[in-house]
UniProtKB/TrEMBL annotation:
Binding site for ATP: S221, G222, G223, V224, D225, S226, S227
EC category name: ligase
Protein name, as recorded: GMP synthase [glutamine-hydrolyzing]
Molecular function GO terms recorded: ATP binding; GMP synthase activity
Pathway assigned to this chain's UniProt record: Purine metabolism; GMP biosynthesis; GMP from XMP (L-Gln route): step 1/1
Subunit annotation: Homodimer.
């Protein structure tokens, strides 16, 4: 049985980061919302309560009966989690006299406490709270303090329940990783055996068991997630996996051919489908970004459905869904407004009535890459920048025509090849070229030109949620601009996007 740690989410922005840190220690963990916590079984080795934007003093504070875990399994409350157990365990939480935010040092650490093994005195920690634990009940004892926070950490005496008001998961808490390791390995007794290799081994065995001789169809996109999902499924069921890779006419230059080739090299049973014209027809006359996205989503489903019907007796749809897409998040400020109707073209049309198999739905993106590496997938596929499902359609502002796609593909290939040649491709999180519906005057030789403008966009980011524009070297930008203007007919001006997200987004549409 796969041992695991459960993280109870009270809506903190850091909850996923706690999960990442646990997994970096090769320990499997799952995040669950505070009001939908699964039953504890033998596989659960310990529980972590997350932070929260709420205050335990608020009338609508988020409640969880921590006694369900306390005394039965090791329990660690972080920030709100710690304040919650202190307050509802007979102590008192009050607003801090000054907001405790930022770095502090643990000037007191209880000698020999297992949670602080190998954490030196004065270790720097990172605080972020507006409330503080003012008083603890008699059966609680203080095990660490900073100058301004007396109860920086406590233990319920004689038990394996701990609370810490600082955040061990952020890197500003210098020994945070050590503390988590102490909790997870020494206190919870986790084995640290959850590695990419063990993931592959158990997942392939589970898939074999689940799928038996059934057939599975899967849409490949050329991206990391669908590729890794396909290879895992392939290892489990071989030729019973039918992959479909659709050319929607909105991919990068030569991408369809080269990616198809690498899929074949990997031994996948893959069919390339040229559906360019169907997409161009559906896009004709559309310039509103949302309408373009919807049209592409609709045609993709039609094409995919046509192809899937050619596979006799297919029972399953394979998908490369990853963990961040399935974590049931605690909604703190209500459902966020739809900014773009994003993610992901495809999905399951109701009428297909297939069961869904998602072998990556417990992994974060970087873990998918590591699993991909273990599976021996082409580094060119694993290292590829994210690319939106609607492809170049949302990088051509306004109406799409095959001519504009062709021009953009040429300019974009020059941009990307130059990033590769200069050795900066892997340092950039995502890069692309945007075709602007703007013409400007230029001069080439003695001729006046009146042609289009393209914009280069390169960003640094961790997850696409926020991003900053990359400070690419001027010389490199100059070379790219020259190469594009000299080689791509129809473009006489190149600009660089220096907006960060927020307030801009990564894509222009
Ligand atoms: P934005 O533009 O919202 O993009 O800052 C964040 C990330 O999402 C990608 N993106 C999409 N991916 N379908 C997708 O599959 C879409 O409609 C879509 N729109 C944006 C974008 O490329 C970036 O990585």
């Amino acid at each position: 049985m796969q041992e695991k740690i459960l993280i109870l989410d009270f809506g903190s922005q850091f909850t996923q980061l706690i999960a990442r840190r646990v997994r970096e220690l090769n320990i499997y963990c799952e995040i669950h919302p505070f009001n939908n916590f699964p039953a504890l079984d033998e596989s659960v080795k310990g529980v972590i309560l997350s932070g929260s934007p709420y205050s335990v003093r608020q009338e609508d504070a988020l409640h969880y009966d921590f006694k369900t875990v306390h005394g039965k399994l090791p329990l660690l409350g972080v920030c709100y989690g710690a304040q919650y157990m202190a307050h509802f365990g007979g102590g008192e939480v009050l607003p801090s006299s000054t907001r405790e935010y930022g770095r502090a040092n643990l000037h007191f650490i209880q000698d020999g406490n297992p949670l602080f093994k190998d954490v030196p005195s004065n270790s720097q920690v990172w605080m972020s709270h507006g409330d503080t634990i003012a008083r603890i009940a008699d059966e609680y004892e203080i095990i660490a303090s900073t100058d301004s926070v007396k109860v920086a950490a406590y233990q319920i005496k004689g038990t394996q329940t701990y609370g810490i008001q600082f955040h061990p998961e952020v890197t500003h808490s210098i020994d945070g990783k050590q503390l988590l390791q102490n909790f997870l390995v020494d206190i919870c007794g986790c084995q640290q055996d959850w590695t990419p290799d063990s993931f592959v081994e158990t997942t392939v065995a589970e898939l074999k068991e689940k799928l038996g001789d059934d057939k599975v169809v899967l849409g490949l996109s050329g991206g990391v997630d669908s590729s890794v999902a396909a290879v895992l499924l392939h290892q489990a069921i071989g030729k019973n996996l039918y992959c479909i890779f659709v050319d929607n006419g909105l991919l990068r230059k030569d991408e369809f051919e080269s990616v198809l080739e690498s899929y074949k090299h990997m031994g996948l049973n893959v069919k390339g489908v040229d559906a360019k014209q169907r997409f161009y027809d559906a896009l004709a006359g559309l310039s509103d970004p949302e309408k373009k996205r919807k049209a592409i989503g609709r045609v993709f489903i039609e094409v995919f459905d046509d192809e899937a019907h050619l596979v006799e007796d297919v029972k399953w749809l394979g998908q490369g869904t990853i963990y961040p897409d399935v974590i049931e998040s605690v909604s703190v400020k209500g459902p966020s407004a739809t900014i773009k109707s994003h993610h992901n073209v495809g999905g399951l049309p109701d009428f297909m009535k297939l069961k869904v198999v998602e072998p990556l739905n417990t992994l974060f993106k970087d873990e998918v890459r590591r699993v991909g590496k273990t599976l021996g997938i082409d580094p060119n596929i694993l290292g590829r920048h994210p690319f939106p499902g609607p492809g170049l359609a949302i990088r051509i502002l306004g109406e799409i025509t095959p001519e504009k796609v062709d021009i953009l593909q040429q300019a974009d290939a020059i941009f990307i090849n130059n990033l590769r040649a200069a050795g900066v491709y892997d340092k950039v999180w995502q890069a692309g070229t945007i075709y602007l519906p703007v013409q400007s005057v230029g001069v080439m030789g003695d001729e006046r030109t009146y042609e289009n403008v393209v914009c280069l966009r390169a960003v640094e980011s961790l997850d696409g949620m926020t991003a900053d524009w990359c400070h690419l070297p001027y010389d490199l930008l100059a070379k790219i601009s020259n190469d594009i203007i000299n080689n791509v007919k129809g473009i006489n001006r190149v600009v660089y996007d220096i907006s960060s997200k927020p307030p801009a987004t990564i894509e222009w549409e």
